[in-house]
Design a protein that fits this description.
single chain; two-stranded antiparallel sheet; 12% strand
Length: 292
Amino acid sequence: MTSHSPTLVSKIGIKHINLLYENQHKLYNYPLGKASLTDEENDYLEKYLDVTKSQLFFAKGVIFVEGISEAILVPEFAKLINRPLDMYAVELVNINGVGFSPFAKMMKAPDQDAGFARASIITDDDRCSNKEETTYISKDLDFNDNLTGITDKIDHGTPSDRYKSIAALCSNNIVKCFGSIKTFEYALALEPNNIAYMLNAIISTYPIAGLKLKDKVDATSNQQLKALMIWLFVRSRNSAKAQVAQALGRALWKQSQAKENGETVGAPFIVPQYIKNAIYNATTGETPVSEE
């Protein structure tokens, strides 16, 4: 039986699916039962791939992300760099965690050089998260605490074992891994243009605490310290990450609309290079030639 129905795909079971696809003008048949998945990984994927997420099997490209903030903002980033995901038939999949390995294994047929879709993983490198290392950053730290030496820890910290593991798996895979320095929010705030956008989004969600954060950020000229304070603020108020991302997304949508209308944006939001690379990989299989 053949079908384009994600509803059937989500119910039939991974081991019973054969994917028919074209790659480099050649036709392939990929039985997912041949994917190098453990029984545990197979069970995990079958529970995860509901009707919506099973759409990835019909996409030309896939971007996997950790959580809601990335799921909201990556499509807006793609528009800013003229790679709208819908135009390139790219599916964005939020796995709500960091368990990317089963997806990376599933995407590439073991006996073929290519997978059924171009795929990117956008994830944090989570450096400074090992309590046994001198570069460890406490989870209790907030933006208004003493932050002396914290940016040095980030500079000298090494990516987490979890990140190194998925990066190694993707080094020989059709799925490519694109990691941030520390976290998504920290990487965004390292771009000077992005500070005002992020502060406005935070203030719209936290009017009082957000203004206190703005005062602290405005009081320093150190870009890394600004990024650190913004990340710590968001991390300490994790329950409202979606609201902050939505507010930022609305601002980015307005910027995209202005660009489409031929208007000049004075200080445009800058998409970090690692995210640009991930979007280009999933949309065209290329690397950006130059900065936007």
